[in-house]
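Thread: "does anyone have the structure for this chain?"

Original post by V.I.:
We have the sequence but no experimental structure in hand. Need at least a predicted one for the grant figures.
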Amino acid sequence: MNNASSLSSSPHASSTPSDPIHMVDLGGLHARLRPELDRAVDEVLRESAFIRGKHVDVFEAKLTRALHLNGHVVGCGNGTDALALALRALGIGPGDEVIVPDFSFIASAEVVAEVGATPVFADIDPATFQLDPASAKRARTSRTKAVMVVHLFGQCADMDALVPWAEEHGLHLVEDNAQSLGASWCGDRVSGPAGMLGAVGTTSFFPSKNLGALGDGGAVLTRDSGLAARVRRIGNHGAERKYHHLEVGVNSRLDGLQAAFLNVKLDHWPDLVARRQAAASRYDALLADVAFTNVIPPARDPHSTHLFHQYCVLLPHGTDRNALQSQLQEAGIPTAVYYPTPLSSQPAFEGTARVAPGGTDVAHDVAGRILALPMHTELTADMQQRAVGELFRLLPPA
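Reply from O.Q.:
Generated one for you, tokens below.
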């Protein structure tokens, strides 16, 4: 491979052929940050501030500043809770419909059903895998109350098309930003940080996320102070002060220990992002050698930054993906599939959801061909050369 040799001088090329390749290397990341993480544990133990408290307050403010969110951050128990809290705070419930991309993790649609509303599945863009605005427009009915935009794999959906359309029709635009926290959109009509472009945004601090805790955690993001206050109240048993409950809520609060860990990682945020982006650029260069295969690398929307939570390629039509993954695993190359089944084909939604007119053919095609290559902050050029080399070796020539 011509491009492989040109990457051998990368500053991160420190591995040897015997080094194991991980799909996600949290062990390596945490080993580098271990002294700071240990100090964070000690501080929380000394203060015994385990639920909400100082560390959560510091983290919410620190995240707002670090990512230039210019709004309110409300920590909660996990990313799925964040979505549910957002929908509840917006008053979405029985009789309402929420447009959701058919290609996403189940939480995006699961929470719609949880609040009693109906998920309506729309198709995705064939290049970026983001919600297709044209399909979303076909999905809208008189019962549509919100559209959920999932900023998938590290970059933003087409917010120039979606934000004005949602505003025109009085729809709440909810941003599921679990995979793209820190990304930004700079379009002709809309600009700003992901999660702050619609009515409300959410994120997850699941350990493998770009900003990951050492356990579960999530947050709701909004510029609306009233909405932020209601989210915080619902997540605290419907109470604004102890033993005084204004509504029926839930227990979903970010704990102090996870906030302390997240504060440590926020200090390293620019480096964590740069490492992923550098790894993605190396993959792009390796996969540019199209003389060997017609694997399609991930598209980058010119209006969005891309943080590469995942690096997902499209395999050639007719590829036996299961067999390919098994062969790659035997060669020491882990891979994953995000996501193998569109949400509209999940048994959980049978009879309780509907699909936008025109169907979701692109989502089904992508689900059958997508493959995620190893992507994390500890990835080296040598590891990537080995991964792409095995991929080329096992696939037929273009």
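V.I.: this helps a lot. The first helix runs from residue 2 to 6.
O.Q.: and The radius of gyration is 21 Å.
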